[in-house]
Write a structure and sequence with these properties.
The protein is of the alpha/beta class. It has 17 helices and 18 strands. Bound molecules: ligand NPW, adenosine-5'-diphosphate (ADP) and potassium ion.
Length: about 525
C-alpha cells in the first residue's frame, strides 16, 4: 500500500474533484459518511455519549459531517468547536451551517481558556481537531485538552491522523498529540504511524477509501510503501517440478568465534529453510564439531584459527555470502574481512559485527558490491550513521548512506524499514516476541537464502523481513511472545510460506488492513 505525503494527498484531493466534477464539499461529505458508516456499523444506535472535538480546518469539517449524520440517526452527540483561530476553512463553514439544519443545539464553542467538558470513562471521543494541516506547535491549552482526553480513558477515535502529529516532522512533547485508540485515515496511512517515536499515538488504524481518482492512486510514485501480502506475492518465484538443489543456489554464512557458533547455526538453518539449495558455513575451527552435529544438512568450512576468523578463503563460488554474525571485531578478523572484500565477487548480506567493522573502518564501505544488504539493529545503525536527532533525521541519514554506497539498509525493529534508492519499504509483520536473542541472525539467514535462490537483493530484503515477521506471528500463536525463541522462527518458515500462498481470508496478515 502506498503511503502518500501530505503534498500528494492535497494534490490527490484536487485532481479528484476536477476529474470527478465534484466539489471539495462533496469529497468531505464522502469522507464524513465513511466515518459515520464505520461508527454506525459498530455502535448500532447505542446511546453512549459521543464527544466530537472539531478544529476549524477541513479535519474539523469532517467532524461536522459526522456530527450531522450521527444526529440524524439518533445518536447521543456532543460537538465542540475548538475556537482558537479566526480562520475557518470554506468547507468547515458550509458544514457548520448544515449542522443547523438537523438540530437546534449548536455545537459548543470552546475558547482557548475555557474549562473542558466532562468525559466519562465509557464515553467516546472523536478527535477532529487537526488533520494533515497542522503547521506549528500547539498552545498549552490544547495540550491540556489532549491530556484531558487521555486522562478520561474514554475510547478515542482520531480522524485521519491523531491531532498534534505532523506528517513530516517529529513532535517534541508527548502531551502535544492525541493518544488515539484507533485512527481512521483517508487515502493512505501516514508514515508517522510506523516510526518508533510516533507509532504510539495510535494503537490501531484503518484506511478509508474515499474514492480518490484511480489514475492518481495508481500512477503516483510515493517515497514510502507499506509491505503486506499483496506487495509480496507478485515477487514470489515458484519452484519448477524438475528443479534440483543446484538450481536454488549456495548460501555461504561466514561468521562465528569461540562462544558464538550458535548464531551461525541459526543463520545457516534459516537460509536452508528459506529455500537455499545448499548452505555452507565458514567458521573458526571451534565451530566445526558443533555445526556438523547440529546442522547435518550443511557443509562446514573452517579457517586455520581455532577461536576466531583470521582469514577467509574458500574454493567454491557461493551464490551469496552472509557475513558478520558473531564474527567479532578483532584486528585479525578486520584484516581478513578487508582481504575478503577486496577479492569477493558474490552478492553480500552484512550483519552484526560485519556492520560494526564497517562502522569502525568506513573505507571498507567502498569495497561492498552494489546492492549489498546491511541489516543493522538500532545500536549497529547508530555506529554506522551516527546519532540521529529524531526518526526523520534517521531516515534521511540512512537514505544518504544507501545512496552514497549503493547499498540496501534494513532498519530493524517493529515495522522494520528497508531503504533503497530513496524509497522506504515498511514491513507489517512481526511482533514483540522477536525481541529475543538470535532473531536477527535468523533474518540474515533468510535474506541470504532468498538471494541464493535467485531473488534480487532488494526483493530478498523486503521479502525476507516480511517472511521473518510472518513466521514469528504464526509461531506466537503457539508460544506466546515471551516464550518465542529464534529457533521457532525457523521452524515456522514453512507455515509462513504456506500462509502467504493460501488464498483464504484467514491468511490476511494483519488486522491493520485496507477497508474492504
Ligand atoms: N483526500 C483527503 O485526504 C481528504 C482530507 N480531508 C480532511 O482535510 C484535512 C486537512 O485539512 P486542512 O488542510 O484544512 O488542515 P487541518 O488539519 O484541518 O488544520 C488546518 C487548520 O488548523 C490551523 N492550525 C494549524 N496548526 C495549528 C496550531 N498549531 N494551532 C492552532 N491552529 C492551527 C490552521 O490555521 P492556519 O495555519 O490557517 O492559521 C488551519 O486553520 C485532512 O486531514 C482530512 O481530515 C477531507 O475532508 C476530504 C478529503
Ligand atoms: N518489538 C518488535 N516487533 C517486531 N520485530 C521486532 C521487535 N523487536 C525486534 N524485532 C525484530 O527482531 C530482529 C532482532 O534483530 P537483532 O537485534 O539483530 O537480534 P540478534 O542480534 O539477537 O540476532 C530484527 O529483525 C527486528 O526487526
Ligand atoms: K485528527
Amino acid at each position: 500500500m502506498k503511503i502518500f505525503s501530505k503534498e500528494q494527498i492535497y494534490s490527490g484531493d484536487k485532481i479528484t474533484t476536477e476529474r470527478q466534477n465534484i466539489s471539495s464539499t462533496d469529497l468531505m461529505e464522502r469522507a464524513g459518511v465513511k466515518i459515520f458508516n464505520w461508527i454506525h456499523a459498530r455502535m448500532q444506535g447505542a446511546q453512549v455519549p459521543i464527544h466530537i472535538f472539531c478544529g476549524i480546518g477541513n479535519n474539523g469539517g469532517d467532524g461536522l459531517v459526522l456530527t450531522r449524520h450521527l444526529i440524524t440517526h439518533g445518536y447521543n452527540v456532543h460537538t465542540y468547536i475548538i475556537n482558537c483561530s479566526d480562520k475557518r476553512s470554506k468547507d468547515f463553514l458550509i458544514n457548520y451551517d448544515r449542522v443547523k439544519q438537523v438540530t437546534k443545539t449548536w455545537p459548543t464553542l470552546l475558547n482557548c481558556s475555557d474549562d473542558f467538558p466532562e468525559i466519562g470513562l465509557e464515553d467516546i471521543i472523536v478527535d477532529a481537531v487537526f488533520g494533515i494541516g497542522l503547521n506549528r506547535p500547539i498552545d498549552e491549552w490544547l495540550k491540556n485538552l489532549f491530556k484531558h482526553f487521555r486522562s478520561s480513558k474514554a475510547f478515542t477515535l482520531s480522524i485521519d491522523i491523531p491531532s498534534g502529529l505532523y506528517t513530516d516532522r517529529p513532535i517534541v512533547d508527548e502531551d502535544a498529540a492525541v493518544w488515539a485508540d484507533f485512527t481512521l485515515s483517508f487515502a493512505s496511512p501516514k508514515l508517522v504511524f510506523f516510526l518508533p517515536e510516533t507509532a504510539q499515538y495510535t494503537q490501531e488504524w484503518m484506511v478509508l477509501d474515499i474514492g480518490l481518482d484511480s489514475d492518481f492512486l495508481s500512477t503516483t510514485q510515493t517515497i514510502a510503501e507499506l509491505i503486506g501480502k499483496f506487495e509480496i506475492l507478485p515477487n514470489y518465484i515458484p519452484r519448477h517440478k524438475f528443479s534440483h538443489k543446484g538450481n536454488h543456489g549456495l548460501a555461504l554464512i561466514v561468521g562465528g568465534r569461540y562462544g558464538m557458533i550458535g548464531a551461525v547455526t541459526l543463520a545457516c538453518k534459516a537460509a536452508l529453510a528459506a529455500g537455499s539449495g545448499l548452505v555452507s558455513a565458514y567458521v573458526p575451527k571451534c565451530g566445526y564439531v558443533p555445526l556438523q552435529t547440529s546442522f547435518p544438512e550443511g557443509m562446514v568450512l573452517t579457517c586455520d584459527d581455532e577461536q576466531m576468523i583470521t582469514s577467509i578463503s574458500f574454493q567454491t563460488q557461493p551464490s551469496v555470502v552472509g557475513i558478520g554474525i558473531g564474527i567479532g571485531t578483532h584486528a585479525k578478523t578486520v584484516s581478513a574481512f578487508r582481504a575478503f572484500l577486496e577479492q569477493n565477487k558474490s552478492p553480500l548480506v552484512v550483519d552484526a559485527d560485519g556492520i560494526n567493522m564497517l562502522s569502525k573502518n568506513k573505507d571498507l564501505l567502498k569495497l561492498l558490491p552494489t546492492q549489498t544488504v546491511l541489516t543493522p539493529h538500532p545500536k549497529e545503525l547508530e555506529r554506522l550513521i551516527g546519532v540521529w536527532k529524531n526518526d526523520f533525521d534517521k531516515l534521511e541519514k540512512v537514505k544518504a548512506l544507501s545512496k552514497e554506497h549503493n547499498v540496501i539498509v534494513v532498519i530493524k525493529g517493529a515495522n522494520s524499514i528497508t531503504v533503497f534508492d530513496g524509497k522506504l519499504y515498511i514491513n507489517t509483520t512481526g511482533n514483540p516476541g522477536l525481541a529475543t536473542a538470535g532473531s536477527g541472525d535468523v533474518l540474515t539467514g533468510i535474506i541470504t537464502g532468498l538471494i541464493a535462490q535467485g531473488y534480487n537483493a532488494l526483493v530478498a530484503a523486503i521479502f525476507g523481513v516480511y517472511l521473518h515477521g510472518l513466521s514469528a506471528d504464526i509461531a506466537a500463536f503457539k508460544h506466546g511472545y515471551e516464550s518465542l525463541i529464534a529457533s521457532h522462527v525457523i521452524d515456522h518458515l514453512g507455515p509462513a510460506f504456506l500462509s502467504l500462498l493460501k488464498k483464504t481470508k484467514e491468511t490476511e496478515e494483519s488486522s491493520q488492513s485496507k477497508e474492504k
